[in-house]
## 1
Amino acid sequence: MTQRAVRKGSGATAAGGTARSYQVKAPAPRILVMLGGPGAGKGTQADVLAEQLGLPHVSSGELFRAHIGEGTAFGKEVQRYMDRGALVPDDVTVRMVSDRLSQPDAASGVILDGFPRTVSQAQALDRMLAQRGNRVAGALYIQVDPEELVKRLSGRRVCTGPSQHIYHVMFNAPKVEGICDIDGTPLALRADDEPDTVRSRLTKQLPPMFEVVDYYADRDLLCAIRGDQSIEKVTEELLHAVETACKVP
Ligand code: AP5
């Protein structure tokens, strides 16, 4: 990655030319946003991109599920929204993600999965980053038709270990049925992947997500990828988009 440089001054050289001196400025942390409907493949792809790009994968859904798993008061409050397939209110979501972005491992950037989910969250993220002299480098939008999203969510199985590795009974099956290839832990259906909750998630969450897609398109930050391709092909196209279009400020 090219580093930007700031001119510091200049001086005459022995050969008579003028040598300018530049102060090397570290690139700003690379903040990538993953967009897509519930089940589009954001988590699957964010895991791979995180490994390839050396950036942490920050999933708002996983952060919420961690609070629920710990049984905190916050987790109990959040669960009421998630069980209904509704979005968690913007103020608490923004605070939680802001805290996560302040952790040392986010210093060189992050892959944000599931956040922002409303225009108000996108604006809050912009303000948060502007205070740090940064901005979103790019928004990667995995486009998948709603009927396909239902198939993906109903067949999804998630590892019950802390890493929450993602599988699909048909499209991305584990080597041993019902067991995570990586952790050896049992796989389970996510509570919000029950058919009624899936329908509710799509109805309530797709409209605000489309507004967020428009928000980044209007700012010339959107890279749209066809998500109805193999997992490997989607990864290839996302990596290409990151390297060609998602520039650091
Ligand atoms: P969250 O955990 O973020 O859920 P989501 O956005 O609904 O997304 P999913 O995790 O369901 O799907 P995904 O796109 O990651 O797909 P995946 O890779 O698993 O959020 C959960 C809840 O928390 C929300 O409903 C809300 O209540 C709350 N919440 C979270 N963030 C919030 C926010 N910012 N504001 C307010 N509330 C918030 O893939 C799905 C399946 O498809 C898998 O089985 C996978 O193996 C398979 N698959 C993936 N890619 C392919 C492919 N190319 N071909 C075939 N199969 C594929």
## 2
Amino acid sequence: HLKELERIKDLEAITLDGHQVELVGNIGEPADIQGVLKNGGTGIGLYRTEFLYMNSDTMPGEDKQMAAYRSVLEAFPDGPVIIRTMDIGGDKKLPYLPLDDELNPFLGLRAIRLCFKEIKLLKTQLRAILRASVYGNAYIMFPMISNVDEVRQAKKILTACMAELDALQIAYRKDVKVGVMIEIPSAAITADIIAKEVDFFSIGTNDLCQYTIAVDRMNQAVSYLYDPFNPAILRLVKQVIQASENQPGLFTGMCGEMAGDPLATLLLLGLGLHEFSMSALSIPQVKKIIRNVRYQDAKKIAAEALTLETGVAVMAHVLESMKKLK
Ligand code: PEP
Ligand code: MG
């Protein structure tokens, strides 16, 4: 079995009837690159840059950030590297950035919301990403977007950073792709509106589950409710992918844990997901499933799943479908 996974490591993630998708890695720091390369990931679908900030005693400066981003970009000369702007707040704190206590931190000043309050911090990061962009295929991704105004505001700040670099005659990729995480229900429901402003979506099922089902992703007492196979989540995922299909040039990926769950692969493939981003170790397993199914069959399996009433029924349907494929 392990030998089989090793054998397909460098083969494409393509179905029996020729539908190709992209399998890429989630990383928290440049050191994680090796695992992604070793397991056949063709790029990075989520670089969680907040660890750069959390592993430092002081705010990391533009040069230090740029060096980190550059090293990731250079490791994947052909593939995409999606760099997410910092997602601090919620449960993630910085010793050098004191924040007020909040009653509901996960509903509070987190990620892009904090960045809009600390614009200098966001601009430093965006300039660092732009400067690094000349070393590869950088994609910029904004987290915790809840409406289209936030996308426009983030893009305006990005444009200002580009003008600053222009004035200093510093090079960057002017065609750098800009996208957002879809991890808040309001963003998923209005994906057709947001689609007009971006180059790509990446669905963050970890937070999308938390916020859609109103279940703290870390609270064991209610973890039985936390279920990516919940029909509500499947409907949102379908809606987001459809919104991107209606907008030429836009693609949808997923970087939440669901993307690396082998039990979800047929569903996501059948719903038309284009890019699957996961922890490195999951890549070979997910690739094996994709290479052993016809896209036409995955579409049927996903369509059938959308008619089911519970997460348990969806899971049973997937398991049954996978048995039949063997
Ligand atoms: C998510 O919410 O699914 C996600 C990928 O982001 P994070 O886990 O870093 O919140
Ligand atoms: Mg998230």
